[in-house]
Structures are given as structure tokens and as C-alpha cells.
């Protein structure tokens, strides 16, 4: 069985660690294995998934990171383009992807969403990737 790839932007290290913890717990609970790579930022996550997909080594992908609103338009660009990139990969390349890139206004919001005992968005993203993997299997799009 192929592993699930976690693609992580560790810009906010504490948040990323919580997201990874939630995702790996969900993956292991589903009796799957996980591998992880890190990328410079959220904008690079879709490109890394596209590269990894070419290798055909992974069954599904979980995008993990955090974007906190600042004083400039950069927040919107990074938020929108990373989400668009992931959606394009999922739709056009039939990849099972869970999007766990948080887009928040404050660090407190990020912590509440990332913490395994609170929002557990890393776990939610892993569950989404696993569910999409199951749907791909139904349609004969083997990623195993």
C-alpha cells in the first residue's frame, strides 16, 4: 500500500507541528503510513504535490500550512493561489488531496484550528484525503 504524503509549509512551526500531529494520527488510525516533505511556503505546496504525483509513489496528499492575514494584499494572493493550485490538481489530475492550509486573521485562531484537542484541521485534511482516495477507488482511479 502506498503512503500518504504530507506536504508541509513550516513557516509557523508550532502551528505546523500541530497540523502534522493531527494528520498523522488520522492516517495511522486508518492503518495507512505517511511520509512528509517540507516546502518554503504555502504557495509551493501545489507544485510539490504535482512533482510528487509524477513519481506515482503516493496514494494521496495532505497540504498543511498556515497563512495569517497581514497588512498587505499578500494574504489574499497566497490564500487564493494555494487553494486554486490544490483544486486544479485534484480536478484535472484526479488526485486525492486534503487541504489543511489554514487561512486566519490571528495566531490565536490558527492555534484553535490546528490544536488536536480543538479544531484538529490537520486531522480533518487527512480524513478528506483518505475519503477522496476511497472515492477514486470507486471509479477505478487506482492510487492505492
Tell me about this structure.
The protein is α/β, with parallel strands linked by helices and 144 residues long. Helix content is 51%, strand content 19%. Strand 3, helix 3 and strand 4 form a beta-alpha-beta unit. Helix 1 packs across helix 5 and helix 2 (45-55) packs parallel to helix 3 (74-93). The radius of gyration is 14 Å and the shape is globular.
Residue stretches low in confidence (pLDDT < 50, at least 5 long) are none
Report the sheet with the most strands, covering strand number, pairing sense and barrel closure.
Answer: 4 strands, parallel
Number of helices, counting only DSSP H or I runs of 4 residues or more: 5
Taken from the alpha-carbon principal axes, the silhouette is globular
Helix content: 40-55%
Strand content: 15-25%
Rg, please?
Answer: 14 Å
User: What is the chain-wise order of helices and strands?
Assistant: EHEHEHEHH
How many β-strand stretches?
Answer: 4
Strand order of the largest sheet: 2-1-3-4
- Terminal CA distance reads 6 Å
Structural class: alpha/beta
Mean pLDDT: 97
Observed structural traits:
alpha/beta; four-stranded parallel sheet; globular; 144 residues; single chain
Describe the structure in brief:
By secondary structure, this protein is an alpha/beta fold. It has helices at residues 13-29, 45-55, 74-93, 107-114, 121-138, and strands at 4-8, 34-38, 60-68, 97-104.
Amino acid at each position: 500500500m502506498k503512503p500518504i504524503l504530507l506536504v508541509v509549509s513550516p513557516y509557523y512551526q508550532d502551528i505546523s507541528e500541530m497540523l502534522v500531529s493531527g494528520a498523522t494520527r488520522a492516517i495511522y488510525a486508518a492503518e495507512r503510513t505517511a511520509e512528509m516533505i517540507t516546502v518554503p511556503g504555502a504557495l509551493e505546496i501545489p507544485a510539490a504535490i504535482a512533482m510528487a504525483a509524477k513519481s506515482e509513489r503516493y496514494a494521496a496528499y495532505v497540504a498543511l500550512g498556515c497563512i495569517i492575514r497581514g497588512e498587505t494584499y499578500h494574504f489574499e494572493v497566497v490564500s487564493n493561489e494555494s487553494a486554486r493550485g490544490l483544486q486544479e490538481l485534484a480536478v484535472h489530475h484526479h488526485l486525492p488531496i486534503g487541504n489543511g492550509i489554514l487561512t486566519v486573521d490571528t495566531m490565536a485562531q490558527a492555534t484553535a484550528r490546528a490544536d488536536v484537542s480543538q479544531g484538529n484541521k490537520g486531522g480533518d485534511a487527512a480524513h478528506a484525503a483518505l475519503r477522496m482516495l476511497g472515492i477514486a477507488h470507486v471509479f477505478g482511479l487506482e492510487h492505492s
